[in-house]
Amino acid sequence: MEHLGHRLKRAREAAGLSQAELADRVGMSQQGVADIETKGGRPRKLLEIARVCGVSPEWLTGESQDKHGDVPSERPSRPSRHAQAQSFSRKSIPEYDVRAGASYGGGVDDQEWRDGDKAGHEPVAHWGLPPSYVERELGLTYGSADIIPVRGDSMDDGSAKALTSGDRVLIDRQDTDPRQGGIFAVWDGGGVIIKQVEIVRGSEPPQIVCTSRNPNYQPITLALDGSVHIIGRVAAKFSRM
User: Fold this and answer.
1) Is the pLDDT reported for residue 82 higher than 50?
2) 214, 157 in Cβ contact below 8 A?
3) pTM, whole model, 2 decimals?
4) How do residues 7-26 score in pLDDT, each as one tens digit?
5) What is the helix (H) or strand (E) element at residue 175, kind and residue range?
6) Exposed (0-12), middle (13-18) or buried (19+): which is 133, by Cβ within 10 Å?
7) CA nearest 222: which of 174, 187, 173?
8) Maximum distance among all alpha carbons in the chain?
9) Sheet containing 207-211: order of strands
10) Backbone angles phi, psi at 138, to 5 degrees
11) CA dihedral 78, 81, 83, 86 (to 10 degrees)
C-alpha cells in the first residue's frame, strides 16, 4: 500500500502548494512536512493537512475505499472550492510605492532587489488576482510581476488607453526587451518613469527613447549605462471609473 507521505505529496502538488506553503498554513515547519513525505507516518495535524490540501483524512491515510473494494483511489479528490479560494489568496502580486526614494527598481541595490531581497522594498499592498487571469490570460509569473501606481499626467492623452494619475499598472519584470517597443517602467537614475519606449538602433552604449502620450511632454533619450535600466513591460492597467 502506498504510504501516507507519497499521498501527501500528490495531494499537496495537486493543490498547487509548496512544502513551505503547506507548513505555513497548518502551523508546522517545512522540515516537518518533508519528513512526513519521506518517512510517512500519521502526522499530528492530519485533519488540518487534509483540509488545506482539499482531500479527506481517510484518503491520506489510505483508509478510504472505492467502489472496487480495498484498493485506494489512485488520485486525490478534487480540491474543494474553499481550498481553491485559499490557493487564490496565497498567490498575490505586491504593490510598491514608486515615491519611496531608491526603492522599487532603484539604483545601487538593484541586483539584490531582482534576487528577491526585500530590504528597502517592502510592498504597501498585496493584490490577490486569480491565477487564471495572471498566468493564463496575461502570461505572467508570480514572483516576477509587480503593481505600481501611476503618478502625474505624462501618459494621459485623453484616450481610452491613457494612463492617468492614480491608475495602477502591472509590471512584467521578465520582459525587459524594448526592441519591439511598448510601454515600460524604467529606472531613469533617480526614480521610476512609465513611458512608451523604443530602442535607438546601433547606439553604443544602448540608448532608449522614452515618449509620453501627453504632447506637453517632450521625448527623452536615456543611455542604458548601468545607472539607467528597464524594470519591465506594462502588461495591464487598473483604472477607476
Assistant:
1) no
2) yes
3) 0.59
4) 889 888 888 888 888 887 78
5) none
6) exposed
7) 187
8) 76
9) 125-127, 93-95, 145-149, 168-172, 229-238, 182-187, 192-200, 207-211, 220-223
10) -95, -20
11) 150
Distance CA 66, CA 73 (A): 6
User: On the CB side of 52, how many CA atoms lie within 13 Å of its CA?
Assistant: 25
Q: Is 204 exposed, middle or buried (0-12, 13-18, 19+ CB in 10 A)?
A: exposed
The number of angstroms, rounded, from the C-alpha of 41 to the middle of its chain's C-alpha atoms is 34
The CA distance from 224 to 193, in Å, is 14
What are 27-58's pLDDT values in tens digits?
788 888 888 888 877 888 888 888 888 888 88
Q: Calculate the alpha carbon distances from 199 to 23, 105, 202, 226 in Å.
A: 46, 20, 9, 16
- Tally Cβ neighbours within 10 Å of residue 152: 14
Question: How many residues in total does the chain contain?
Answer: 241
Please give the span between the terminal C-alpha atoms of the chain, in angstroms, as a whole number.
Answer: 58
